[in-house]
TrEMBL record:
Species whose genome carries this gene: Lacrimispora amygdalina
UniProt keyword list: Membrane, Transmembrane, Transmembrane helix
Transmembrane domains' residue ranges: 21-42, 48-64, 76-99
Keyword Membrane annotated: yes
Annotated protein name in UniProt: Sodium:solute symporter
Length: 131
């Protein structure tokens, strides 16, 4: 009956090491990078975000290692971050390619210009709404 549930048997409480802190942030940045890679439609400035989040996540996963093998959380963060960085790089290169080809007089350049103009027309508010 006299048990004390608050005692720690003379041992100090264990705090999580900084490796798990970096691993957590690696997973978070890898996930955010994948999310921004999947949603590039909101802004052209959103395109390099997946690449930046991915590279940051890779750095955090490596920092979490600290001379020991990768934890499972750090492995997950590393995998998500690598996928995010690669997809972000591919998306950025694709957009650069599209804008570069739009300036040419090739059939592909004409097609990209027509798609861009049609999309701009569809997204513009109509002028007769207030009349």
């Amino acid at each position: 009956m006299g048990e004390n549930y608050n005692s720690n048997n003379g041992m100090l409480p264990q705090t999580p090491n900084t490796g798990s802190f970096f691993a957590f942030w690696s997973v978070l940045f890898g996930g955010l990078g994948l999310l921004t890679d999947c949603l590039p439609l909101f802004s052209i400035w959103n395109l390099p975000a997946g690449l930046i989040f991915g590279l940051t996540g890779i750095a955090l996963a490596v920092l979490s290692k600290k001379g020991k093998p990768f934890s499972h959380q750090a492995q997950l963060g590393l995998i998500l971050s690598i996928i995010s960085a690669v997809c972000g790089l591919l998306l950025a290169l694709f957009i650069i390619f599209v804008y570069d080809v739009m300036d040419t007089n090739t059939p592909l350049g004409l097609y990209f210009r027509q798609v861009f103009e049609a999309t701009t027309q569809a997204l513009m508010p109509t002028g007769g709404a207030g009349k």
